UniProtKB/TrEMBL annotation:
This protein's GO CC annotations: cytosol; nucleus
Protein known as: Nitrile-specifier protein 5
One GO MF term: lyase activity
Source organism: Acer yangbiense
Keywords, ordered alphabetically: Iron, Kelch repeat, Lyase, Repeat
UniProt xrefs under InterPro entries: Kelch-typ_b-propeller
Signal peptide (from-to): none
UniProt entry tagged with the keyword Phosphoprotein: no
Length: 331
């Protein structure tokens, strides 16, 4: 454990071999377990469609004995948990086809269920990959990503109670279509942070679902550099941003761009950014990376950001697990 002022970072030991190094995958936390799905080791080649489970108590991996509508392998997929249920949306298959199925996984019964697809009455968002997902107590939100005809800037919500999709107004020209943005629910609004829209972006937008209105917000403080495909989480009124890609590779997804390993928080009340002194260069620091799997959750009663794997500056996939715990006002 390393303490950097008011920020603590743990690297979690994995007591036995797990799913291995990968990027463009997704994780979700339910209780003391981390569920990991999808991803790639070689660029654009999905690894598997097993649901790997990491126990934060025993620090051991297992594979869920899953039944039902098991999703095919994919990359660029997202996951979010509401209660004991995990929701998985979209991604890209081994033929580079964009997908739009929504699946649920019941962690109590280990059963997959296909909730919506292209051919159903409740088709939901168009096909996409490298989009972003966030959730509150009743909704799973989907924003942006790489669609069949280009980058997207649409926002959808799946109501987990009514089992229906809601299509919100599109963000508009001020919020360009983008892949790999941050998406966070904070103070009753949905926040879109940065992303790649043909270039790395450094803008912040928020949507008020009560009034159905988008707004671009001006931020102050020590602002992060433009970036995409970074881990992010909402903790109370704060948005936490770690790492990401600040300059894409000339080889596109086949190569490694320039990654960064810094940590920032955005206060969504004051709209002020703060950079955290998180000890770069120390042995336990996760270092520069992007295309990670990440999720917000609790460990030992403390809220934070869990990061698993990703791509490194050397274009090598990573298999380490880190948990960040910030000390924030009102948390």
């Amino acid at each position: 454990m390393l303490a950097f002022g008011d920020f603590v970072s743990f690297q979690l030991d994995q007591k036995e071999s797990g799913p291995g190094a990968r990027s463009s995958h997704a994780i979700a936390l339910v209780g003391h377990k981390v569920y990991a799905f999808g991803g790639e080791f070689a660029p654009r080649v999905p690894v598997d469609n097993k649901l790997h489970v990491f126990d934060l108590g025993t620090l051991t991996w297992s594979v869920a004995d899953a039944t039902g509508d098991v999703p095919p392998p994919r990359v660029g997929v997202t996951m979010a948990a509401v209660g004991n249920t995990i929701y998985v949306f979209g991604g890209r298959d081994g033929t580079h086809k964009e997908l739009n199925e929504l699946y649920s996984f019941d962690t109590c019964t280990n059963k997959w269920t296909l909730l919506s697809s292209t051919y159903g009455d409740n088709a939901g968002p168009p096909h996409r990959s490298y989009h972003s997902t966030a959730a509150d107590e009743q909704h799973v939100y989907i924003f942006g990503g790489c669609g069949v005809a280009g980058r997207l800037n649409d926002l959808w919500a799946f109501d987990v109670v009514d089992q229906k999709w809601i299509e919100y107004p599109t963000a508009g020209d001020s919020c360009k279509g983008r892949g790999g943005p941050g998406l966070v629910v904070a103070r009753g609004k949905i926040w879109v942070v940065y992303g790649f829209a043909g270039m790395e972006m450094d803008d912040v937008h928020c949507f008020d679902p009560v009034h159905g209105k988008w707004a671009q917000v001006e931020t102050s403080g020590e602002k992060p550099t433009a970036r995409s495909v970074f881990p992010t989480v909402g903790i109370g009124k704060y948005i936490i941003v770690y790492g990401g890609e600040v300059d894409p590779s000339d080889l596109g997804h086949l190569g490694a761009g320039k990654f960064i390993g810094d940590v920032y928080s955005l206060d969504t009340e004051t709209l002020t950014w703060t950079r955290w002194d998180d000890g770069p260069g120390l042995d336990n620091h996760p270092g520069p990376r992007g295309w990670c799997a990440f999720a917000g959750g609790c460990r030992d009663g403390k809220q934070g950001l869990l990061v698993y794997g990703g791509n490194s500056p050397s274009n090598d996939r990573l298999d380490d697990i880190h948990f960040f715990t910030p000390a924030l006002d009102g948390i």
